[in-house]
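Entry 14. Structure prediction run on the chain below.
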Amino acid sequence: MNRHPARLKIQSRRKKPTLPRRKDMTVCIAASYMIKPGWDGVATAVDWKLTDTQTGITSETGSKAVSIARNIVALGADDMDLFHDVIDRVDVKIGALSSYPPTVSQVADLYLEAEADWRQEYLQRHVLSKQGITWESLFDKMAKDELSQSYVENIQHHLGQCEVPYATEAIIAGTDDVAGLRVARMFKITPHTKDNCSQKGFAIIGEGSLIADAEFQAALYDKFWPRAASLFLCFVAKRQSEVISSVGRETSLQVMNDNGDGFEHVSHKVYTAFEKAYNKLRNRKLKSERIIYEEAKKAFDQFQVERW
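Output returned:
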């Protein structure tokens, strides 16, 4: 009997990598918010723009937000085929855990491990296989002292010269149950690093990250903001980052549901209201930014979300 039905449902809708590969250097944003003391949630904003690496043709058809477990979402940038491949591997690793759901930090570690596994497989295909060996046989022969020092040094040289051409950036964000509290956690992942962004409350990746980050700084954001305000700030930061050519115009907004067991798309009516409020903010049609945030909150409270 499968213990993780949600994971399998998510896995079934993913596409396997295809060639040519799809490149994304966009902006992905995650921010935490407080529903009530000790009860956090997570909001996200991403675009849909992808670039075909062979033709250079762009399209706004790429999903960059993937629910990993009922309490966790992953946002991806850079090589999106690799991102989805890594997510599939993370799903398998989650299935082998002794407890479910996993913590956000566990999933971040599994993501790093899964991408490292993929890189090792790449090096085996492109370096070791040309020598008629695998990682397993190489380590076995080394342990038995069956290889000359010059042979090992030659293998190490070729491994060092082989540049793995694909990599990802990712945000792993969600909530953990801690002593009866629901605490937001988020980590920014690069191929070799895991940065804990939980304390500051937001994480941003992609080419538009500097502009989006500046919006959070200017807004004096903190992780205790209410849900509608945090979500609207994610929207504003994403829209402002569109001055970067690789950031697409289409925007996808999600929030965690009140039970903390799933993410939901913001309804089109909320998106339309956010767009109107953003235009007022950009054109400085109102004297107070607080009024604009109140408009955004009113729209969110009225129209809410659509099930993801």
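The chain is about 40% helix and 25% strand.
Filed with the rest of this week's runs.
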